[in-house]
Design goal:
Strand content: 5-15%
Helix content: 40-55%
Low-confidence stretches: 105-109, 221-232
Mean pLDDT: 83
Strand order of the largest sheet: 1-2-3
Order of helices and strands: HHHHHHHHEEEH
Amino acid sequence: MDEFVLALAARGVTDGWVGQQRAWVCGLLAFAQVPVWGVGPGDVDGWLAAARDRGAGSQTRGQMAQAVYRFYVFVGVRHGRLVQELTGRPVPQPVDEFNLPRRLARVGVRLPPSAREAEELFGAWRASLPRTPGRGFLVAARDYVAASLWRRVGLRINETVRLEVGDWHPRVGAHGVLHVRWGKGSRGSGPRQRLVPAIDGVDRLLAWWLAEVRPQFGDGPAGGRAGGAAAE
């Protein structure tokens, strides 16, 4: 469980979100009263049904199922061989097409691309950026930087386009931080601010953007924003 929590935290997500994932997985294990590798679909059935009886809505139960699914994928990838050797059985996946809440069952649950696949995609994307400075290069570079922020530190689209140059603080912390001023609030509470560490190469990405790309946009109506021509 500690390794699972650390892996989630390493992706740059909030402590509150990580804590909720851990609480849901621990809640299932407490309900099932068996080791991690002994949990089956029936345990998840009963756990989600009990949550429904306590008033948990379909969206919450969907998030609970996703947390458990994510945890068991992690255990299978990181410790599947060890579990097989010690117990003589593979790591189960107790969340299946039958106990997924209906909202999630329609779209399914997919594994994210591996780190290698993501690196190949973004590496090829950057290599394909137009070499000649001009409108084509600027638009392509802007889109590449925006998508890289989504991938590397989990920024939302609205958070990204509202970033301004002054929101980047390269001398804070080990890698610098982004001040996200337009974060998504809960239940209509308004924007929620947070500081996002520039991990996973985001510091180098922003240094390249601000030094070599952003100045080419000029100082138009959106000149103060790190997104450059996002308003065009």
